[in-house]
Amino acid sequence: FGFKLVNLILHIVNGVLIFILCIQLYLQFNAEKAKAYVFALLAAGLWLLHPIQVNTVMYTVQRMTELSAFFCLLGFITYLHGRSLMAKGRLSAGLVWVFISVYGCTSLAVLGKENGILLPLFLMILELTLISGKQGYYIAIRTVWIMLLLPIMLSLLYLGLTANSLAANFIIRDFTPGERVLTEFTVLINYLKVILFPHPGAFSLYHDGYQISRSLFTPPFTLISILITGGLLSVSILWRKKYPLAAAGILIFFAGHLLEAGPFSLDLYYEHRNYLPSLGVMIVISWAGTSLLTSKNLKIPVVIFLGIYSLSLMAITRDQAWLWSEPELQLNQWVKH
C-alpha cells in the first residue's frame, strides 16, 4: 500500500504542475486570466481523473514514468518562465531558465525513464505553435535545437552501431521492426479512442493478443490509422497559427509516443505510455470546452456535457482502482478483456 500511496501523491503533484503549466500555455495567446484558470482546471482535472492513468499509478514500477513526467512538466514550466522573461527584454535571465529547462530538466527526466529525452522536442513544439515570433525566439530556438540535435545524433549513431543486435532482439518477437512500426499506427489511434471514449473493458495491464499489422492492408485498419495520423499531424501543422493550443496538444500527443512507437523490440501496447502524452488530448478538449463556453447559446449544453463526461471518467476510474484491491477478480477481468 505504501508504494501505491507514494505513486498517488506523485500523480497529484503532477496534476498541480499541469494546472500551472496550462495557465502559462493559455496566457501565451490570450491574456484573459479567468479563461486561463478555467482551461487549466479542465485540463488538469480531466488528466488526473482519467482511467487510463490508473495502471500507471497502481503499478508500482511505473513510478519511473511518473518521475520522468514530473521533470518534463517542470521543464515545460521553467522553459515558459524563461521565455516570458525573454519576451519582456530580460534576455540573460530568461536564457538561464531556458538552459535549466533544456539541459537540467531533460537530464533528470531521462534518469526517470528514457523517453524523458523527448522534452526538447516538446519545447520545440511550443516554440513552433504558441511562442513563435516573440522576442528572444531565435536565441531560444537555437538553444533547443542544440539540445534536440545532440540526442538525435547520438541515437542515430547508437542505432548504426547496434543495428545487428537490435535486429537480433526481434528473434523473440513474432513481428519484425517494420511490422512493429505499422502496428503502432493502429495502437496510437486505439489510444486516442480509449482516451476520448473510455469504457471499463478498455483497460488492462496486459494486451498480449493485440493484432499485428503485417502490411498496409493486413488488417485494413492499418492504412486507415496511418491516414488518420497523417491527417491530424497535417492539420495541426497547417493550423498552428490559427489554433495554436489545439495544434500543440495534437503534436504533444504524437511526439510523446515517438520513442516507444519506434522500431524497437518492445511490447506493442501499454496504457502507461499515455501518462504524459494524454495531456495533449486533454489540452485539445479543454481548449474546445473553454472556447465554447463563451457562446451564450452553447454555454449550458457545454457545461452539462463536461459535467457528465467528468463524472463518467470518475466512475470508470473508481472501478478500475477498486479492481486493484481484488487481485483475483482483476485477473479474471484482464483475461476476459
Chain-wise SSE layout:
Blueprint: H1 2-27, H2 33-49, H3 54-58, H4 63-87, H5 91-112, H6 119-131, H7 137-161, H8 163-168, H9 177-196, H10 221-238, H11 244-256, H12 278-292, H13 299-323, H14 327-336
Helix pairs in contact: 1-2, 1-4, 2-12, 4-5, 4-6, 5-7, 6-7, 6-11, 9-10, 10-11, 11-12
How many strands appear in the DSSP assignment? 0
Assign a percent range to the helix content. over 70%
Question: Helix- and strand-based class?
Answer: mainly alpha
Quick one: biggest sheet?
Answer: none
Oligomer: single chain
Low-confidence stretches at least 5 residues in length (pLDDT < 50)?
Answer: none
Q: Write down the overall geometry.
A: globular
Strand content: under 5%
How many domains? The number is 1
End-to-end separation in angstroms reads 26 Å
Order of helices and strands: HHHHHHHHHHHHHH
The gyration radius over C-alpha positions equals 20 Å
Number of helices: 14
- Give the overall pLDDT as a whole number: 89
